[in-house]
Design brief:
alpha/beta, seven-stranded mixed sheet, four-stranded antiparallel sheet, disordered N terminus, cytoplasm, ATP binding, aminoacyl-trna synthetase
């Protein structure tokens, strides 16, 4: 969550389609040459996805992220987002986890939040600008915005001194402010000075174990304890906006940070007082068993002596002959149903007590309307749907000292290609543009960038350029066109149509980059004079003995 195109990242760019928006600003059209719905390429023998928040993330195409990790295409939710950001419209933000609650909160003017962070290991660059922009746009749409500096992670995972971290932290904050973050309406903090985050990390650590760290992050006996602590701290960062009240929260990240998001969503559920599930009888069912028992209930007219009151044993006998593969789940479901005998098979919502206090458990029983049944460790409600049950459980939990966390949402953006082709890394200065680069240096880097052009001008005019493979066109789509979809589309169409040659295209992009850097750095200087007014600790090194 806290590293976006980290300065020494080995993350390679994901092959993608950078088709510009239509003239009306809508999402890119999926043409005949876009056989894959995710914009990736059907690469023969492509590598499997390996998502590592600190190391190498090799992704051959976005389809693997959808298939292997359950990330959903952002196009599926785009129409639900009021005033979508241009990165959303152009497919740069390509995927999400559970973004619909965020979109609904925007539309309904309900509380919600956005948070993302930065590991201060080097200067902020144009790759980081995407995340800055995503935080700022969400703040402008009405979200409570949080920007954090992951200094504990930088110190533990990368071994930076506190003096180095202080310098980089100041630079990240300046760029975030210069790009439009409102510190009066939002929250800026660093992990090392936020005691609430550290306390929450401690509580979350109770629900985490080393075997998970091994499975998720590949930690082993050589991994230092501070590095492991930095993970629970990041989990606390992700859930921090919900400390005062549960609310939908979105975390904008690159796809390499998805392991953090999946772990945070799991921990959010584990911290809850109550787990809400659908049930059909007094006994517990696994998810797979529950699906089969639901099928048996829906077919009760085929076997029940009294259709209004089917018995578990009857359902078990029917399910035993149900025409489906003889799975382990079916066998266990049949056994549980037959063991329950004449117990009625009745749909209900079940509140299972996880960490609930006795007072919270009693309060939930009292709050449930209609028919209900109380057991030692759970409560069954017969006249309530699942959504209402979730809302009631969270309300009771929050009223009795619990967190009531809503699983955090996330959005994922494509990595920018380096100006020299391949990955963007600050270890290769020519591959990236720092937000601190002299404007003339930025101009020169763009002028020297690799393009998707043909070998000769004649061939370019005849065949058109390959904008989808061009780092310079990426600059237009991701940054230089800003909110102007017409301009982005014009550059693309002229390139692939052979009207635009690379020399002129790079000259125009270089001039725009120079203007952007000059303007950005002027705004940084303006904010530098007002940093003392911020509630932010810039000098941590001076308060720490040894400084390393």
């Amino acid at each position: 969550m806290t590293r976006e195109h980290d300065t020494d990242s080995e993350t390679e760019p994901i092959s993608n389609d950078r088709t510009p928006p239509a003239a009306d600003g809508s999402a890119p059209q999926r043409g005949a040459d876009r056989a894959l719905p995710d914009g990736g390429t059907d690469t023969e023998g492509a590598d499997d996805v390996a998502l590592d928040p600190w190391g190498s993330s090799t992704v051959s195409d976005y389809r693997k992220l959808f298939e292997q990790f359950g990330i959903e295409e952002f196009d599926a939710v785009l129409d639900e987002v009021p005033n979508p950001h241009y990165l959303m419209r152009r497919g740069v933000i390509f995927g999400h986890r559970d973004y619909r609650p965020i979109a609904a909160a925007m539309r309904n003017d309900e509380p919600w939040a956005v948070l993302s962070g930065f590991m201060p290991t080097g200067d902020p660059h144009i790759g980081h600008k995407m995340v800055f922009d995503e935080i700022i746009w969400h703040q402008q749409q009405g979200g409570d915005a949080y920007g954090l500096i992951a200094d504990l992670e930088a110190h533990s995972a990368r071994g930076l001194s506190w003096e180095e971290i202080d310098e980089h932290a100041r630079s990240y904050v300046l760029s975030l402010l210069a790009l439009g973050f409102d510190p009066e309406e939002g929250t800026l903090y660093r992990q090392s000075t936020n005691r609430e985050v550290q306390d929450l990390a401690f509580e979350l650590g109770i629900e985490a174990n080393f075997s998970e760290f091994q499975a998720i992050y590949g930690f082993d006996g050589e991994t230092d304890i501070s590095h492991m602590q930095s993970v629970t701290t990041q989990m606390a960062d992700i859930l921090y906006p919900q400390l005062d009240e549960p609310k939908p929260t979105v975390i904008p990240v690159g796809p390499d940070q998805d392991p953090h998001m999946r772990f945070a969503r799991d921990l959010a559920e584990r911290m809850r007082f109550f787990k809400v599930t659908d049930a059909f009888a007094s006994f517990e069912l696994t998810d797979a068993e529950r699906e089969l028992v639901a099928v048996a209930y829906d077919h009760r007219e085929e076997y029940a002596e009294d259709e209004a009151m089917p018995r578990c044993g009857e359902a078990g006998d029917w399910l035993a002959d149900y025409e489906t593969s003889a799975t382990e789940a079916r066998q266990s479901a049949v056994e549980k149903l037959r063991n329950a005998g004449k117990e009625p098979l009745r749909p209900r919502v079940r509140f299972f007590a996880r960490h609930a206090t006795d007072e919270a458990f009693d309060a939930l029983v009292e709050a449930i309307d209609g028919e209900k049944r109380r057991y030692e460790s759970h409560i069954d409600a017969f006249e309530m749907d699942h959504e209402a049950a979730e809302e009631l459980a969270r309300e009771v939990e929050a009223d009795h000292g619990g967190y009531g966390f809503i699983p955090p949402s996330s959005i994922y953006h494509r990595f920018m290609t380096g100006l020299t082709g391949g990955k963007m890394s600050s270890s290769v200065p020519a591959s990236h543009i720092s937000l601190l680069d002299d404007p003339e240096d930025g101009y020169d880097k763009v002028r020297s960038a690799t393009t998707g052009g043909r070998e000769t001008a004649e061939e370019q005019r005849e065949l058109g350029g390959k904008a989808d493979e061009c780092p310079v066109y990426e600059l237009y789509a991701y940054l230089l066109s800003g909110d102007d979809d017409e301009f982005a589309k014009e550059v693309y169409d002229e390139c692939v149509g052979g009207e635009r040659l690379c020399g002129g295209c790079k000259e125009q992009a270089a001039e725009l980059m120079k203007e952007f850097l000059a303007d950005h750095q002027e705004k940084r200087e303006e904010w530098a004079e007002k940093l003392d007014e911020l509630d932010f600790e810039f000098d941590v090194a001076g308060e720490r003995a040894g400084g390393n």
